[in-house]
Amino acid sequence: MSHSERIQARFQCHFDKFGLDVDLNLPGSGITAIFGHSGCGKTTLLRCIAGLQTAKGHLSVLDELWQTASHSWPVHQRPLAYVFQETSLFPHLSVRKNLLYGYRRVPAEQRKITPEQVYDWLGLTPLLDRMPARLSGGERQRVAIGRALLTSPRLLLMDEPLSALDQQSKQDILPYLERLRDTLAIPVLYVSHSTAEVARLADHIVMMERGQVVAQGPLQETLARTDHPFRLEEDAGVILNGEIAEVDDRWTLCKVVFDGGELWLRHHDHLSSGMSVRVQVLARDVSISLHEHKDQSIQNLLPATVDHIAREVVPGISLVRLLAGGTPFLARLTSRSVHRLQLTLGGQVWMQIKSVALAD
Ligand SMILES: Nc1ncnc2c1ncn2[C@@H]1O[C@H](COP(=O)(O)OP(=O)(O)OP(=O)(O)O)[C@@H](O)[C@H]1O
Fold this sequence. Notes:
single chain, alpha+beta, 2 domains, 6-stranded mixed β-sheet, 5-stranded antiparallel β-sheet, 20 strands, about 35% strand, binds adenosine-5'-triphosphate, ABC_transporter-like_CS, molybdate ion transmembrane transporter activity, membrane
C-alpha cells in the first residue's frame, strides 16, 4: 500500500497531568481498533484527528494532507464522520429525515453512498418512519452510524459506539458492523476497551498505554507478539481465520480447518459447512505437553513448534509462542512448567487447547 493509501498521524499534546505522543501508520481501509485501558488517550487521539483538539503534528488521510507543521484544516473542512457512545438524533425528525439530514448537505457530485445502500447495510428500512423516541438503544446507534455514512466521509471515527448498549443490543448490532467492515471502502478507527469487540471486528490494532502507542499492526500478528500481550492479562490470546469443514450434529460440534490444523468447537445454529469464521484461542486455555496424550478429556490436541519464550512476563508466569503450520498460538504457563518441560526454541510439543471460541 503506498503512502497515499494510508493514514499517517503524528500528534503531541499536553494537558496538566497527561501527555499524548503518538506516531501512527495505519491502513486506509478496514477497521483499525484503538485499544487500551480507560484514560490511556484513545478519545484524545480521535479528537486530534477530527481537529477538535489542538495538537502539534502531522496528519495525512489517504491522498489528503489534513495537518502539517504550517497548516491545519479546521474541523468543518475535515471530511470525516464521528459516532459517539450516545449519539443524539434530532428528536423532532423521523428516522428517515435524520438520515437524510447530512446527506442533503453534501454536494451531489461528492456523494459516494446512497440512502438505499445504507438502509440495506444497516437494516434500517423498517425504522424509517419511526420517531427517535421509539427506538431502542441499538436501533438508535444503527441510525447514528447510517447518518454518519450518508455524509460520504473519507474517514469514520467511532468512539465506543456500543458501550452504552446492553449485552443483547450489542450482540444484535455486531453483525451489521461486520457487514460494514466487509462492504465499506471507508477506513474506520474504532475505539474500544472490549477485547471481544476487537477480536470480532478489527483488521488492524493500535494498543495504547499512558498516551503512547505500545504496539500497532495487523490484528493476528500483533496479538501473537509476546512482548506486550501480558498487558492484556487474562485476555491475551490469538485470533485465527478458518473455515467450517464439518458439522457433527450428534455431539453439537463443528470442525474448523485453518493453516496449521483443525479445531473442534461448539456448534451454533448459524454455522454451516464452508463458512469462514474467526476463532479466538486465549493463552490461558493452552497448555503444553511433550507427548500426545489422547487419554484425556481435551479434544483439541495440535502438534506445534516452540517459536519464542517470554520468561517472567509477570512474576512466576511465562508466555510461550507456538507455531502450528503458519499459525501462531500463545500459551500462558507457570515459569516452573517451562523449566520442568525444558522447553527450547524449535522444540516439538503438543498443544492442549481447553477452549476455543468463535469471535464472530
Ligand atoms: N481537555 C482536557 N484537559 C485536561 N485533561 C484532559 C482533557 N481531555 C482529556 N484529559 C485527560 O487525558 C487523559 C486521557 O483521556 P481520554 O479521554 O483520551 O482517555 P480514553 O483512553 O479515551 O479513556 P476512556 O476509555 O475512559 O474513554 C485522561 O487522564 C483525561 O483526564
